[in-house]
Amino acid sequence: MRKTTKRVSPRWRAALACLSVAALASAGCTDVPGVVILTPIHGEFTTAASINVTGIVINVDAGDAEVLVNGVSVPIDGMGGFDTNVTLDPDAVFNPIDVKLTDTSNGFHTQARVTVIAGDSIADGAYSLESIALRINDSGLDTLEGIVADLVGFDPADLVPLGTEVLDDCVVRDPLFGLCLGTARVTIESPAPSASGFGISMDSMTNFVAADVLVTDLEIHLEIDGTGLVPNCGLDIEATTTDIFGDYALDPDAVDPTTIDVNQLPGVAVVFGNFDYQLFDLCDAPIIGDIIQLFLPDIEDVFSDGFLEFLQDPDGGGPLDAPIADAIETALLGIEISGPIGESLGVLLQTPMFDVPEDTNGLTIGTDTSVTATVGTGPGECDAPPGSPDLLASYHVDEAFPSFGALTPGGLPYELGICISTSAFNQLLRAQIECGLLQIELTEFDLGTGPLPLTTGLLALFIPELGAFPPNSPVLLKIKPTLAPVLTGDPGPAGELAELRLGHLELELRDITPGVEEPLLVIAIDFKAGLELLVDDATDQLAPTITQIDPADVTVAIIDNLIQTDEATLQAVLPTLLTVALPQLGASLGAFPVPSFLDLELDPVEISRSGQFMSIFANLTVPLLDNGNMEDTLDAPADAQGWNGDLFAITGAENGVAALNGASMLRFDATTPGGAAAGPDAEVSQVVDLSAYAGQIATGTTTLQTTAFFNRVDAGPNTDSMFQINIEALDGGLSVIASAGDSLLSDGDVGTWEDHIAGLLLPPATASARITLVASENVLDDAASPEFDGHYADNARAKIMPPLSPVNGDMEDTGDLPGDAAAWEGDPFSIVAAENGVTPHAGSSMLRFDTTGVGGPGSDSAANLFQDVDVTEYASLIATGNANINVRGFFNRVDVDAQTDTQFLFVILARDAGGTNLANIFAPYFTDADPGTWEQHQTTLALPVGTVAVRITLVAFENVFNDLVAPEFDGHYVDDVTLWVAP
Question: How sure is the predictor about 589, in pLDDT bands with cuts at 50, 70 and 90?
Answer without folding.
Answer: low
